[in-house]
Design goal:
five-stranded mixed beta sheet, Immunoglobulin-like, alpha+beta, four-stranded antiparallel beta sheet
Length: 252
Protein backbone atom coordinates (compact mmCIF):
# COMPACT_ATOMS: atom_id res chain seq x y z
CA UNK A 1 0.00 0.00 0.00
CA UNK A 2 2.85 2.37 0.80
CA UNK A 3 4.48 1.62 -2.58
CA UNK A 4 1.15 2.16 -4.40
CA UNK A 5 0.64 5.43 -2.57
CA UNK A 6 4.16 6.55 -3.46
CA UNK A 7 3.50 5.77 -7.14
CA UNK A 8 0.12 7.60 -7.14
CA UNK A 9 1.46 10.77 -5.51
CA UNK A 10 3.67 11.85 -8.46
CA UNK A 11 0.83 11.05 -10.89
CA UNK A 12 -1.56 13.22 -8.90
CA UNK A 13 0.97 16.07 -8.88
CA UNK A 14 1.40 15.82 -12.66
CA UNK A 15 -2.39 15.83 -13.20
CA UNK A 16 -2.79 18.86 -10.94
CA UNK A 17 -0.02 20.74 -12.75
CA UNK A 18 -1.60 19.98 -16.14
CA UNK A 19 -4.99 21.17 -14.90
CA UNK A 20 -3.42 24.39 -13.65
CA UNK A 21 -1.64 24.94 -16.96
CA UNK A 22 -4.74 24.23 -19.07
CA UNK A 23 -6.46 27.34 -20.43
CA UNK A 24 -9.65 28.32 -18.64
CA UNK A 25 -12.70 28.52 -20.94
CA UNK A 26 -14.20 32.00 -20.84
CA UNK A 27 -17.86 32.85 -20.63
CA UNK A 28 -19.89 32.22 -23.78
CA UNK A 29 -21.52 35.66 -23.63
CA UNK A 30 -19.73 38.81 -22.52
CA UNK A 31 -21.27 42.27 -22.98
CA UNK A 32 -20.56 45.77 -21.74
CA UNK A 33 -21.60 49.41 -22.21
CA UNK A 34 -19.54 52.35 -23.42
CA UNK A 35 -20.81 54.23 -20.34
CA UNK A 36 -22.44 53.08 -17.11
CA UNK A 37 -23.38 56.59 -15.97
CA UNK A 38 -25.39 59.22 -17.82
CA UNK A 39 -25.28 62.66 -16.19
CA UNK A 40 -28.29 64.91 -16.79
CA UNK A 41 -27.35 68.59 -16.69
CA UNK A 42 -29.20 71.73 -17.75
CA UNK A 43 -27.63 71.34 -21.21
CA UNK A 44 -28.60 67.67 -21.58
CA UNK A 45 -30.29 67.02 -24.96
CA UNK A 46 -30.11 63.24 -24.96
CA UNK A 47 -27.27 60.85 -25.61
CA UNK A 48 -26.31 57.50 -27.13
CA UNK A 49 -24.69 54.55 -25.40
CA UNK A 50 -22.97 51.75 -27.30
CA UNK A 51 -23.58 48.17 -26.17
CA UNK A 52 -20.97 45.71 -27.39
CA UNK A 53 -19.76 42.22 -26.62
CA UNK A 54 -18.77 38.77 -27.79
CA UNK A 55 -20.61 35.46 -28.09
CA UNK A 56 -19.76 31.97 -29.21
CA UNK A 57 -21.42 32.63 -32.55
CA UNK A 58 -24.26 30.91 -34.30
CA UNK A 59 -26.90 32.49 -32.05
CA UNK A 60 -29.02 35.64 -32.18
CA UNK A 61 -28.47 38.50 -29.75
CA UNK A 62 -31.30 40.46 -28.11
CA UNK A 63 -30.69 43.37 -25.72
CA UNK A 64 -33.24 45.16 -23.55
CA UNK A 65 -33.00 48.26 -21.36
CA UNK A 66 -35.67 48.70 -18.68
CA UNK A 67 -35.98 51.89 -16.65
CA UNK A 68 -37.29 52.26 -13.09
CA UNK A 69 -40.79 50.85 -12.71
CA UNK A 70 -43.69 52.93 -11.44
CA UNK A 71 -47.47 52.93 -11.30
CA UNK A 72 -49.11 54.95 -14.05
CA UNK A 73 -52.70 55.99 -14.74
CA UNK A 74 -54.08 56.07 -18.28
CA UNK A 75 -57.13 58.29 -18.85
CA UNK A 76 -59.60 58.12 -21.69
CA UNK A 77 -61.23 61.34 -22.85
CA UNK A 78 -64.82 61.68 -23.95
CA UNK A 79 -67.02 64.47 -25.24
CA UNK A 80 -69.49 65.86 -22.70
CA UNK A 81 -71.68 68.79 -23.81
CA UNK A 82 -69.22 69.49 -26.60
CA UNK A 83 -66.19 69.54 -24.27
CA UNK A 84 -63.49 66.89 -24.13
CA UNK A 85 -63.01 65.67 -20.52
CA UNK A 86 -61.43 62.68 -18.81
CA UNK A 87 -64.16 60.09 -18.38
CA UNK A 88 -62.50 56.72 -17.66
CA UNK A 89 -59.13 55.77 -16.26
CA UNK A 90 -57.13 52.63 -15.53
CA UNK A 91 -53.99 52.30 -13.42
CA UNK A 92 -51.18 49.94 -14.35
CA UNK A 93 -48.59 48.71 -11.84
CA UNK A 94 -44.82 48.44 -12.26
CA UNK A 95 -44.74 50.17 -15.62
CA UNK A 96 -41.18 50.63 -16.98
CA UNK A 97 -40.48 54.35 -17.25
CA UNK A 98 -38.22 53.52 -20.21
CA UNK A 99 -38.00 50.47 -22.45
CA UNK A 100 -35.74 49.76 -25.39
CA UNK A 101 -34.99 46.57 -27.29
CA UNK A 102 -32.45 45.74 -29.99
CA UNK A 103 -32.05 42.44 -31.81
CA UNK A 104 -29.94 40.83 -34.52
CA UNK A 105 -33.08 39.67 -36.35
CA UNK A 106 -36.85 40.24 -36.11
CA UNK A 107 -38.00 39.01 -32.70
CA UNK A 108 -40.74 36.78 -34.15
CA UNK A 109 -38.03 34.94 -36.10
CA UNK A 110 -35.77 34.50 -33.07
CA UNK A 111 -38.15 32.89 -30.57
CA UNK A 112 -41.77 31.95 -29.99
CA UNK A 113 -44.33 34.09 -28.14
CA UNK A 114 -43.86 32.18 -24.87
CA UNK A 115 -40.11 32.85 -24.71
CA UNK A 116 -40.55 36.47 -25.77
CA UNK A 117 -43.23 37.02 -23.12
CA UNK A 118 -41.22 35.27 -20.38
CA UNK A 119 -38.26 37.61 -20.86
CA UNK A 120 -40.29 40.69 -21.92
CA UNK A 121 -38.64 40.87 -25.33
CA UNK A 122 -40.49 43.45 -27.40
CA UNK A 123 -42.84 46.29 -26.46
CA UNK A 124 -45.90 44.09 -26.98
CA UNK A 125 -44.51 41.63 -24.41
CA UNK A 126 -43.80 44.15 -21.63
CA UNK A 127 -45.85 43.13 -18.59
CA UNK A 128 -48.35 45.90 -17.84
CA UNK A 129 -50.71 44.67 -15.13
CA UNK A 130 -53.88 46.68 -14.34
CA UNK A 131 -54.41 47.46 -10.66
CA UNK A 132 -58.21 47.34 -10.64
CA UNK A 133 -59.92 46.44 -13.91
CA UNK A 134 -63.28 45.53 -12.44
CA UNK A 135 -66.06 46.15 -14.95
CA UNK A 136 -63.68 46.24 -17.93
CA UNK A 137 -63.44 43.45 -20.48
CA UNK A 138 -60.25 42.26 -22.18
CA UNK A 139 -60.71 44.52 -25.21
CA UNK A 140 -61.07 47.62 -23.03
CA UNK A 141 -57.96 46.72 -21.01
CA UNK A 142 -56.02 46.18 -24.25
CA UNK A 143 -57.17 49.61 -25.45
CA UNK A 144 -55.85 51.27 -22.29
CA UNK A 145 -52.60 49.31 -22.61
CA UNK A 146 -52.17 50.36 -26.24
CA UNK A 147 -52.78 53.99 -25.24
CA UNK A 148 -50.09 53.75 -22.56
CA UNK A 149 -47.58 52.34 -25.05
CA UNK A 150 -48.46 55.01 -27.63
CA UNK A 151 -47.91 57.77 -25.07
CA UNK A 152 -44.52 56.33 -24.12
CA UNK A 153 -43.52 56.00 -27.77
CA UNK A 154 -44.65 59.57 -28.47
CA UNK A 155 -42.31 60.68 -25.67
CA UNK A 156 -39.51 58.52 -27.18
CA UNK A 157 -39.38 56.48 -23.97
CA UNK A 158 -40.42 53.20 -25.61
CA UNK A 159 -38.92 51.67 -28.74
CA UNK A 160 -40.90 52.40 -31.89
CA UNK A 161 -38.45 51.02 -34.45
CA UNK A 162 -35.97 48.86 -32.49
CA UNK A 163 -32.31 49.28 -33.53
CA UNK A 164 -30.52 46.24 -34.88
CA UNK A 165 -27.65 44.37 -33.30
CA UNK A 166 -24.89 44.10 -35.90
CA UNK A 167 -22.09 41.56 -35.94
CA UNK A 168 -18.58 42.88 -36.65
CA UNK A 169 -17.34 39.32 -37.12
CA UNK A 170 -18.38 35.80 -36.19
CA UNK A 171 -18.31 36.67 -32.48
CA UNK A 172 -18.27 40.45 -31.99
CA UNK A 173 -21.55 42.39 -31.86
CA UNK A 174 -22.63 45.95 -31.12
CA UNK A 175 -25.67 48.22 -31.08
CA UNK A 176 -26.43 51.84 -30.20
CA UNK A 177 -29.04 52.74 -27.57
CA UNK A 178 -30.62 56.20 -27.58
CA UNK A 179 -31.73 58.03 -24.45
CA UNK A 180 -33.84 61.16 -25.09
CA UNK A 181 -33.61 64.44 -23.20
CA UNK A 182 -36.65 63.58 -21.06
CA UNK A 183 -35.29 60.22 -19.88
CA UNK A 184 -36.15 59.72 -16.16
CA UNK A 185 -33.31 59.37 -13.66
CA UNK A 186 -32.77 56.10 -11.85
CA UNK A 187 -31.12 52.70 -12.14
CA UNK A 188 -31.69 50.95 -15.48
CA UNK A 189 -31.42 47.19 -16.01
CA UNK A 190 -29.58 46.19 -19.19
CA UNK A 191 -29.99 42.56 -20.24
CA UNK A 192 -28.36 40.75 -23.15
CA UNK A 193 -29.74 37.40 -24.31
CA UNK A 194 -28.08 34.83 -26.52
CA UNK A 195 -30.87 32.87 -28.24
CA UNK A 196 -30.46 29.78 -30.38
CA UNK A 197 -33.15 27.52 -31.85
CA UNK A 198 -35.83 29.56 -30.09
CA UNK A 199 -34.38 29.19 -26.57
CA UNK A 200 -32.22 31.39 -24.38
CA UNK A 201 -28.76 29.84 -24.31
CA UNK A 202 -27.08 32.47 -22.14
CA UNK A 203 -27.86 35.84 -20.61
CA UNK A 204 -26.08 38.67 -18.86
CA UNK A 205 -27.36 41.58 -16.79
CA UNK A 206 -25.73 44.90 -15.91
CA UNK A 207 -26.79 48.27 -14.52
CA UNK A 208 -26.85 51.74 -16.04
CA UNK A 209 -27.28 54.78 -13.79
CA UNK A 210 -28.95 57.96 -15.06
CA UNK A 211 -28.60 60.80 -12.59
CA UNK A 212 -29.22 64.54 -12.45
CA UNK A 213 -26.15 66.58 -11.52
CA UNK A 214 -25.42 70.21 -10.73
CA UNK A 215 -28.23 72.78 -10.51
CA UNK A 216 -30.66 70.36 -12.18
CA UNK A 217 -30.08 67.84 -9.37
CA UNK A 218 -30.54 70.50 -6.67
CA UNK A 219 -33.88 71.60 -8.12
CA UNK A 220 -35.02 67.99 -8.53
CA UNK A 221 -34.11 67.06 -4.94
CA UNK A 222 -35.77 70.20 -3.59
CA UNK A 223 -38.97 69.44 -5.52
CA UNK A 224 -39.00 65.85 -4.24
CA UNK A 225 -38.19 66.57 -0.60
CA UNK A 226 -40.16 69.80 -0.16
CA UNK A 227 -42.97 69.56 -2.65
CA UNK A 228 -45.38 72.07 -0.96
CA UNK A 229 -42.70 74.75 -0.68
CA UNK A 230 -41.55 74.09 -4.24
CA UNK A 231 -45.11 74.49 -5.51
CA UNK A 232 -45.55 77.74 -3.58
CA UNK A 233 -42.30 79.16 -4.95
CA UNK A 234 -43.32 78.16 -8.49
CA UNK A 235 -46.62 80.04 -8.09
CA UNK A 236 -44.88 83.13 -6.68
CA UNK A 237 -42.36 83.08 -9.53
CA UNK A 238 -45.11 82.72 -12.15
CA UNK A 239 -47.10 85.60 -10.67
CA UNK A 240 -43.99 87.78 -10.43
CA UNK A 241 -43.01 87.12 -14.04
CA UNK A 242 -46.55 87.86 -15.18
CA UNK A 243 -46.59 91.15 -13.26
CA UNK A 244 -43.17 92.09 -14.66
CA UNK A 245 -44.28 91.31 -18.22
CA UNK A 246 -47.37 93.47 -17.72
CA UNK A 247 -45.26 96.38 -16.51
CA UNK A 248 -42.91 96.12 -19.48
CA UNK A 249 -45.77 96.01 -22.02
CA UNK A 250 -47.52 98.99 -20.43
CA UNK A 251 -44.35 101.06 -20.70
CA UNK A 252 -43.89 100.09 -24.34
Amino acid sequence: MRRAGSRLAPAALVAASLAAAAPVRGEALVADLSAHLIAITTAFVGTNVVLFGTSEGGADIVATVVGPRENQIVRRKGRVAGIWVNRESLEFTRVPSYYAVASSAPLEQIAGPEVLARHELGVEHVRLEPVDAEGLDADQIDAFRAALVRNKQRQQLYSRAPPSVSFLGPNLFRTTLHFPANVPPGIYQVQVFEIEDGYVRDAQRSALVISKVGFEADVFDFAQQRAPLYGLLAIVMAVSLGWLAGVIFRRS
